[in-house]
């Protein structure tokens, strides 16, 4: 178990890394940059992280861990319009809260450093299973008008990701609030 000082050092390293990733390409950030920004010795860095790659994965897990838990709990959600809107509200609020980090992560060089396939395996694929289970329950109950829950889960995750990705990177001339409203309409139409 980490001490209070140890937890503080761990968090300071992650914060320094986040600042540096926002300033320059993740591939150009070195461990020396991180320890210099944090004000610790290089050996101290290695007490907490095996490598820069390990730091990056822990950084993302720490920032997005509660989204993973929420996705697991989606199987408990219902299917009326308000509940479908609640799902979109959560996703959009999550994006708004983490826009800076999401912009860092959506940088092509960030994907290139970790590998797009590894990122998809670690995040996107694990979100599809609970989404698929939730959709299958709605299909079996006759509440949702879908034929293939697995396909629809993949379709929804990829669609939401692509649309929100464009908003995150300022590629759409609309606000995230406008996208939220359009996504609510889209999701209800797709599922009912």
UniProtKB/TrEMBL annotation:
GO molecular function: DNA binding
Domain of life: Bacteria
Presence of the UniProt keyword DNA-binding in the record: yes
InterPro entries given in the database record: DNA-bd_HTH_TetR-type_CS, Homeodomain-like_sf, HTH-type_Tx_Regulator, HTH_TetR
DNA-binding segment(s): 30-49
Occurrences of domain HTH tetR-type (ranges): 7-67
Keywords recorded for this protein, A-Z: DNA-binding
A matching Pfam family: TetR_N
Protein name (database record): TetR/AcrR family transcriptional regulator
